[in-house]
Amino acid sequence: MANFWAQANALLRKNLTYQRKRIWTNVRLVLIPLFLCLLLFLIQYVIDKGIEVANSASSKKCGSEDDVIGGDCPVPKPPLLPPMLQIPNPASRAVQASFFSHGDLPDKSCRKTGTCPVTILLTGNNNSFGKVLSGNMFGGSFAVNTSDVLPSLASNVLGSTFGAGINYYADQGINSEIYNIQSQCRPNSTWPFSFGQIHTVVKCVQGLSLWRNSSVEVNDELFKGNWRGNTEKMTNEISAAYDLLSTDRKNFDVTIWYNTTNSGDNSNERKRLVRVPRLINLVSNAYLKFLKGPGTRILFEFVKEVPKHATNYSPDLASLLGPLFFTWIILLLFPVILTTLVYEKQERLRIIMKMHGLGDGPYWLISYAYFLIVSMLYIISLVSFGSAIGLKFFRLNAYSIQYTFYFIFINLQIALAFLVSSLFSKVKTATVVAYLLVFGSGLLGNSLFEGMLESSSFPENGVLALELYPGFSLFRGLYEFSESAVRGNGMKWADFRECSMDKLFYIMSVEWFVILIVAYYIDQVSQSGKSHFYFLKNPFKKSSSLPSPSVQRQSSRNIRIDIEKTDVTQEREKVEQLRNEGKAGHAIVCDNMKKVYPGSDGNPSKTAVRGLYLDVVSGECFGMLGPNGAGKTSFINMMTGLLKPTSGTAFVQGLDICKDMNKVYTSMGVCPQHDLLWETLTGREHLLFYGRLKNIKGSALTQAVEESLKSVSLFDGGVADKPAGKYSGGMKRRLSVAISLIGNPKVVYMDEPSTGLDPASRKNLWTVIQRAKQNTAIILTTHSMEEAEFLCDRIGIFVDGGLQCIGNPKELKGRYGGSYVFTMTTASEHEESVERMVIRTSPNAKRVYHLAGTQKFEIPKQEVMIADLFLMVAKVKSKYTVFAWGLADTTLEDVFFKVATTAQPSLS
User: Fold this and answer.
1) What's 417-482 look like in SS3?
2) What PANTHER family does the database record attribute to this sequence (predicted)?
3) Domain check: are 275 and 345 in the same one?
4) Cα separations (Å) of 231 from 102, 107, 147, 235, 365?
């Protein structure tokens, strides 16, 4: 029996051999990120060159106002700009309308003259105080000191119909019409105005402050006024509104409504800054005037942007596209791992390795280590090559953080692949689902999850909950790397907590551990056939052998004895005697094994095996014959661990298959009905792998492999070193038999081993099996009666889930075939005469077939001698023309046919 490390060594060597044969597939896998990074680099290069050409072709010089507005040139000393209110266009200002409940707005005729006022609404808890405050909002006539423009402008309330730009390095409102908002305006009041190199005209517009009784009324008017679907088919925009709340002489508490729709310039969607500072100053000055008199005010002279460097650099695509692009690249490993695991399940390679002694521990260790090594090479090549070609996404962020993050995630990804593989049995289905997860994770992360990360209103706990999905965990980490690279400083360990990467690492680490445990648990329950609570059992309890006699006797009560099947009854009694005596020396002991498949869709349950008792000793080949659907495959599947018995059990070398199947595998060989081989491994490599699993080492392993190859005629002509995928069907069958016999297992199950072989190869294979059974118990299923008679020491005919007879071929032929088969062909008109002569010779003779003069009779051996039959033939020939005749003893095929046909009606 091979120990843990011997099994791991065998699997590792096999995997290395297998991967060596598909080395270019692995090389291409590792080169994928290099190719994609190179593609990103080339796109970046083209963009950089395009920007460089555009800059060189431009004749503009930094310092002009256009460059300031464009934002490409450096601005070491930003300009001082006067603060202004955002006001509606004259045609959009609020006027009387049917949907307004108050009638204090101006008549809509003002729109024809362009004199509609700018309306501001006020509300609050103190009506009288609010109305006083509303009268202090707007000043008098426009007055500007040309020698000191900004301080004198601060005493005026200016407004613009143009929205603010994306920054305050320039203001388009100064280049357009500027409005001075006053309490009263004289008709056509305008003033010339110069600001730097800008010369324009300031127009007067009336400011109208209206009181409302509640914030509900204010909100209703603001909503209806800005709704383009109203009955007047136009907007009635109110510039702003104030809710003074509980403001009084000792408390200043204000809520401001402001408009960001910029109806004056809807084409420019990038105008994001809102002219709110002047709104705050306006209500603050009104409050100060109320408290201290009209001479008191806060001068709001200008607004000024911070200085900036030149911004005419090209964007770093790797940093901007990093979360989506690299999410896809790293997740591409998931389909590779998943399909490899599902392929082993689909082709049943995992179970055939398990049947030959490979434990779950070595399988998990080697498979996990292999996927981890490939994933690490993939990640190292990605980071190294990305850094080498100058991608800031990799260069700026600390490599220690990156590798730690990637290491945790690829472990999480491998564990997830093991878990998800339990859901699939077909590679094609798993592949489609895996790639949907890959691209879906990237797209959802980019379109949905990124918005949640950037939203201040989305709760942090919600983000952490979404990061429980590994695809979003990866996206979050890459997003933080990208943001750090875009800022130009990169992520360092000092920034680790600030961007919540510590929580992300905790989530992925815990999830990795939990998913790995769950995946292993599901594997043990589904693949190894253990109970759902197997981990609660005492690990130090010794494995049970045959059950105690008291339990045996109790379990054997009420078993019906069929007196007609004395051989089957004797087999049951022999098994019961072995149980009572507690003997465990026999190779295979089946104790009342049953298998019932539950019914579904209204169909009744199906009993595949009905209380099977069987004893097979070492050195014996037991043949199991039966028609299709008799239950042979279900029996073999229970014995090899693919199915668990519904009741009863079996003991292999004294070990219970229901409790100790993993130990049973170490002394078992299997030749399945369908060849389970690796297409790229040679016959020699297959046998080396399974030989190591049987704990054969060194020169003994080499010798055993060569002898196995020679015994099945796969040694000469270089056949042993050809990939199994290039073998013919017969060669694969012979290799499967050699695999089942290598290492001299104590028990071997062969399911139709000679199927598809030519007569010469079949005879040679029979010789191999007959030589191998000397120290081995073999259970063999076959449809070839010749094979059963040649190989089997005992034969059991299995019909409708139960044994109908057991014995060696001669006993069965003697018991169920105690007659001669006599055949004669004459003219059709002589059939009755021939039949009468046969009856006179043997009164109990039975005609079983007749057609066109040919008749077949079963003649009991005890009634006649062969000489009597020859004399009868001579008499017939003397009277009639005999075209052909024959006399044969009963064959095993006749016995099988007779037992099968007589058993099924009795069972039905």
Assistant:
1) HHHHHCCCCCHHHHHHHHHHHHHHHHHHHHHHHHHHHHCCCCCHHHHHHHCCCHHHHHHHHHHHHH
2) ABC TRANSPORTER A FAMILY MEMBER 10, ATP-BINDING CASSETTE TRANSPORTER SUBFAMILY A ABCA
3) no
4) 17, 16, 50, 10, 74
Do 231 and 349 reside in the same domain of the chain? Answer: no
C-beta of residue 767 within 8 angstroms of C-beta of residue 746: no
Distance CA 596, CA 242 (A): 80
Q: How far is CA 606 from CA 119, 507, 603, 612, 630, in A?
A: 85, 48, 9, 16, 11
| Amino acid at position 637, single letter | N
What are residue 61's phi and psi, to 5 degrees?
Answer: -120, 140
Q: Which domain holds residue 830?
A: 819-889
Please tell me the number of Cα atoms within 13 Å of 616 on its side-chain side: 33
Number of domains in the chain: 3
Task: Please provide residue 836's backbone torsions phi and psi, each rounded to the nearest 5 degrees.
Answer: -65, -40
State the pairing for strand pair 621-625/240-243: unpaired
CB 745 within 8 A of CB 667: yes
Given a contact cutoff of 8 angstroms between Cβ atoms, the answer to whether 244 and 129 are in contact is yes
The string of pLDDT tens digits covering residues 79-92 is: 888 888 888 888 88
Given a cut of 60, is residue 788 above it in pLDDT? yes
Same domain, 347 and 476: yes
- Do 283 and 327 fall within a single domain? no
Task: Summarize pLDDT for 720-740 with one digit per residue, the tens.
Answer: 999 998 998 889 999 999 999
- Assess if residue 125 is contained within a domain: yes
Q: In the structure encoding, which two tokens stand for residue 485, read together?
A: 């690279």
Specify whether 177 is located in the same domain as 323.
no
CATH of the domain at 865: 3.30.70.1150
- Tokens 């490409």: give the residue: 72
Q: Would you give the end-to-end CA distance of the chain in angstroms?
A: 46
Same domain, 326 and 270: no
Considering the domain boundaries, does residue 743 fall inside one?
no
Tokens 């030989």 belong to which residue?
Answer: 691
Indicate whether 601 pLDDT > 50.
yes
Q: Is residue 283 included in any domain, yes or no?
A: yes
Q: How far apart are CA 791 and CA 140, in angstroms?
A: 120
Alpha helices in 556-652 (DSSP H): 566-581, 632-639
